[in-house]
């Protein structure tokens, strides 16, 4: 895809950035056979459902220069890698519990020459208990990882007071959000707003659920033993 694709959707990129997206696409194509990163393989769909969708997180209005961002359950690097290509001033930790995906991201970081991007192998509920990483990020992002109540317990502990957690969800977020109200409060968050949007070419509706961190998360969260998933907060 050339720059016209990005310009059409309001993202004007340099030739180097366009080349990085192209290189990322090729690496995805090459590694997908080995490690099953994504079911989406056709170029236009990859560019819209993965690259553009990741960039649309900038519409949240809370991403600023030089922030520290953790992308939880990043998989093949979404939304983290496209955001880094778009805004090189951002610093990323890309966390995933599958080692083979982290190995892939190590290659992406090297080949695309991305500074200040650290792929990290681990489970969110364990990493979030570690000093130096807990409550140390301006922003946490997560796409397609878990239902909202579980996701909140995975993600909010990483965010500094005053920062934001952005959950990238589909169009049917309302029920999930409704049953997550007490979890948001318990973990120190407050619903800031929800942004609904539609991908081009009828490729689907999406939403950004933006949670502001207003108080420190009590140290008992995230709970151990798989509880955020088996017994979600309610
Ligand atoms: C469906 S994939 C989504 C990947 C990527 N965010 C995307 O939108 O394409 C979910 C990813 O979350 C990771 N994951 C699931 N539970 C996790 C946890 N507790 N901690 C860290 N990563 C987790 C999985 O290994 C997987 O790579």
TrEMBL record:
The record's similarity note reads: Belongs to the methyltransferase superfamily. RNA methyltransferase RsmG family.
Q: What class of enzyme is it?
A: transferase
Query: Keyword Cell cycle, does the record have it?
Result: no
Q: Cite the Pfam families for this sequence.
A: GidB
- Lineage, broadest ranks: Bacteria, Bacillati, Bacillota, Tissierellia, Tissierellales
The Enzyme Commission number assigned here is: 2.1.1.-
InterPro entries found in the cross-reference section: rRNA_ssu_MeTfrase_G (IPR003682), SAM-dependent_MTases_sf (IPR029063)
On whether rRNA processing is a keyword of this UniProt record, the answer is yes
Q: What does this protein do?
A: Specifically methylates the N7 position of a guanine in 16S rRNA.
Sorted alphabetically, the keyword list is:
Cytoplasm, Methyltransferase, rRNA processing, S-adenosyl-L-methionine, Transferase
Q: Where in the cell is it found?
A: Cytoplasm
Xref: Gene3D superfamilies: Vaccinia Virus protein VP39
A biological process term (GO) from this entry: methylation
This chain belongs to the protein called Ribosomal RNA small subunit methyltransferase G
Query: Which residues does the record give as S-adenosyl-L-methionine binding sites?
Result: 73, 78, 124-125, 143
Q: Name one GO molecular function term.
A: methyltransferase activity
Q: Which HAMAP family match?
A: 16SrRNA_methyltr_G
Q: Primary place of residence?
A: cytoplasm
């Amino acid at each position: 895809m050339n720059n016209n694709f990005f310009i059409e959707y309001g993202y004007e990129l340099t030739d180097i950035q366009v080349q990085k997206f192209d290189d990322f696409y090729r690496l995805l194509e090459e590694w997908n056979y080995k490690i099953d990163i994504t079911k989406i393989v056709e170029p236009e769909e990859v560019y819209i459902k993965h690259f553009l969708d990741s960039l649309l997180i900038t519409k949240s209005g809370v991403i600023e220069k030089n922030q520290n961002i953790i992308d939880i359950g990043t998989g093949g690097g979404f939304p983290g890698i496209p955001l880094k290509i778009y805004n090189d001033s951002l610093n990323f930790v890309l966390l995933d519990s599958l080692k083979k995906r982290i190995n892939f991201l190590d290659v992406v970081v090297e080949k695309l020459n991305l500074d200040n991007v650290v792929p990290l192998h681990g489970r969110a509920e364990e990493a979030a208990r570690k000093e130096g990483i807990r409550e140390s990020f301006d922003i946490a992002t997560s796409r397609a990882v878990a239902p909202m109540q579980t996701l909140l317990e995975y993600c909010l502990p990483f965010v500094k007071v005053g920062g934001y957690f952005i959950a990238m969800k589909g169009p049917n977020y309302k029920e999930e959000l409704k049953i997550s109200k007490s979890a948001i409060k318990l973990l120190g968050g407050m619903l800031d707003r929800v942004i609904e949007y539609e991908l081009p070419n009828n490729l689907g509706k999406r939403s950004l659920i933006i949670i502001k961190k207003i108080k420190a998360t009590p140290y008992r969260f995230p709970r151990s033993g798989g509880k955020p998933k088996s017994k979600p907060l309610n």
